[in-house]
Amino acid sequence: MQEFLSVCIGIGLAAACGFRIFVPLLIMSIAAASGQLTLASSFQWIGSPPALIAFSVATILEITAYYVPWLDNLLDTIATPAAIVAGTLVTASMISGMSPFLKWTLAVIAGGGAAGLVQSATVLTRAASTGTTGGLANPLIATGELGLSLLTVFVTLVLPVMAVLILCVAAVFGGRALWRWYGRRNAEASRLPQMQADLPQVT
């Protein structure tokens, strides 16, 4: 049961990395340093003072950068692979008592996958905001992402199983919404040549 809860915590924290990469790592570092979170033996460094300082600085820089116009979209190009790596490491740090092969396979698929899915959703949301509002609404989106990252970490640490269930439900509904959006987009794209053909030709 303890291993199952550890896996759930790892997946939940990985999903939080999709919103903000360093916020979950900072909170993990604080919790581990205070003895509130037990990490796998090879990841004890996360709770060390140097790691705590590094994660604190990185978190401040990351949060600030997402409020700089156009820099937020530039960050998204590197944030997606970074979030997948962070999600994998976060999940692996919570898993103990498994073979290394099973541990890292689970970490990559579940942790990295959860972080990648969440990060992809934030990238699409920010791109849509930039396209429709010229980036004016991006600070609101950045604030919402920060809040969701903190909320995801909090719920994961308190109710890990519920956090994973919520993430699964959100993934299903988000996937359906994205599928419908792509369907409408493709339908509009397919109608465009016909609309152009129907326009009167000027000679």
Structure in words:
This protein is mostly helical. It has one domain (2-198). The protein is built from seven helices and no strands. The chain has helices spanning 2-19, 22-33, 49-65, 71-94, 100-133, 138-158, 160-198. Helix 1 (2-19) runs parallel beside helix 5. The relative contact order is 0.15. The model has no long low-confidence stretch (mean pLDDT 85).
Concise synopsis of the structure shown:
The protein has 203 residues and is an all-alpha fold.
What's the SSE pattern? HHHHHHH
Report the average pLDDT across residues.
Answer: 85
Main pleated sheet: none
* Count of β-strands: 0
Q: Structural class of the secondary elements? A: mainly alpha
Taking the alpha carbons of the first and last residues, their distance comes to 77 Å
Tally the helices: what do you get? 7
Radius of gyration: 20 Å
Quaternary structure classification: single chain
Shape estimate: globular
**Which percent bin holds the helix content?**
over 70%
- Low-pLDDT residue spans: none
Strand content: under 5%
Give the number of domains: 1
Chart the SSEs and their pairings:
Elements: H1 2-19, H2 22-33, H3 49-65, H4 71-94, H5 100-133, H6 138-158, H7 160-198
Helix pairs in contact: 1-2, 1-4, 1-5, 1-6, 1-7, 2-3, 4-5, 6-7
Characteristic key phrases:
7 helices; about 200 residues; globular; mainly alpha
